[in-house]
Amino acid sequence: MDIILKYFPDLTELQISQFNKLEELYKEWNAQINVISRKDIDELYLRHVLHSLGIAKVQPFLPDSNILDIGTGGGFPGIPLAILFPKANFYLADSIGKKIKVVNEVATALGLKNVKADHIRAEKVKGEFDFIVSRAVTNMDDFVKWTRKKIAKKKNHELKNGILYLKGGDLTEELVSFPNATLYDLTNYFEEEFFETKKVVHIPLKKR
Ligand SMILES: C[S@@+](CC[C@H](N)C(=O)[O-])C[C@H]1O[C@@H](n2cnc3c(N)ncnc32)[C@H](O)[C@@H]1O
């Protein structure tokens, strides 16, 4: 948990207590429904919570903004972002019902009023969002196909509305058909070795 305060020193007491509770909640739920790999659970705050919050360093979310997390699994990156931005609305979607059960249990235990979680396939999600966030779900070609009609027209943030995807490794080939993609190295914000090849990929999308 110290690692979260290291990079986000202005958290409120409520946010600190919510982040603190994540460890126990995920340990408890992960024992029943596997949402985080066993080896990763000991590094929950680094590999899952702080990694998710990398998106916040690239683009903080404004009050009343609408954010969709596709393939959220146990709630990443959606849950840590919802704690950090309690005035933004988060819609967390996954095609596996038992993962959404964990997300709902965690959100309820934390008292997060800004999280709605649904057992739904990405392709079926309705609504318009300022940003669509994600991690470890699919390749960018498919992801853009799933999401391009779900972007709100009105731009309120510094970055253009679109995708903010947490990716790692060499993305040259995967992003060849997205010349408008911008890559933000997480090493610009976080010094831990884990982030060495990790990036936030921003792709502006227009509804059409
Ligand atoms: C590797 S997990 C990643 C989970 C989470 N984003 C994380 O980083 O911890 C991929 C998740 O994407 C979900 N998923 C895959 N295809 C999907 C689709 N078409 N619609 C919704 N969820 C999908 C899977 O059910 C799974 O929970």
Automatic annotation (TrEMBL):
<keyword id="KW-0698">rRNA processing</keyword>
<keyword id="KW-0949">S-adenosyl-L-methionine</keyword>
<keyword id="KW-0808">Transferase</keyword>
<keyword id="KW-0963">Cytoplasm</keyword>
<comment type="similarity">
    <text>Belongs to the methyltransferase superfamily. RNA methyltransferase RsmG family.</text>
</comment>
<feature type="binding site">
    <location>
        <begin position="122"/>
        <end position="123"/>
    </location>
    <ligand>
        <name>S-adenosyl-L-methionine</name>
    </ligand>
</feature>
<dbReference type="GO" id="GO:0005829">
    <property type="term" value="C:cytosol"/>
</dbReference>
<dbReference type="Pfam" id="PF02527">
    <property type="entry name" value="GidB"/>
</dbReference>
<keyword id="KW-0489">Methyltransferase</keyword>
<feature type="binding site">
    <location>
        <position position="76"/>
    </location>
    <ligand>
        <name>S-adenosyl-L-methionine</name>
    </ligand>
</feature>
<protein>
    <recommendedName>
        <fullName>Ribosomal RNA small subunit methyltransferase G</fullName>
        <ecNumber>2.1.1.-</ecNumber>
    </recommendedName>
</protein>
<feature type="binding site">
    <location>
        <position position="71"/>
    </location>
    <ligand>
        <name>S-adenosyl-L-methionine</name>
    </ligand>
</feature>
<dbReference type="InterPro" id="IPR003682">
    <property type="entry name" value="rRNA_ssu_MeTfrase_G"/>
</dbReference>
<dbReference type="InterPro" id="IPR029063">
    <property type="entry name" value="SAM-dependent_MTases_sf"/>
</dbReference>
<comment type="function">
    <text>Specifically methylates the N7 position of a guanine in 16S rRNA.</text>
</comment>
<dbReference type="GO" id="GO:0070043">
    <property type="term" value="F:rRNA (guanine-N7-)-methyltransferase activity"/>
</dbReference>
<feature type="binding site">
    <location>
        <position position="135"/>
    </location>
    <ligand>
        <name>S-adenosyl-L-methionine</name>
    </ligand>
</feature>
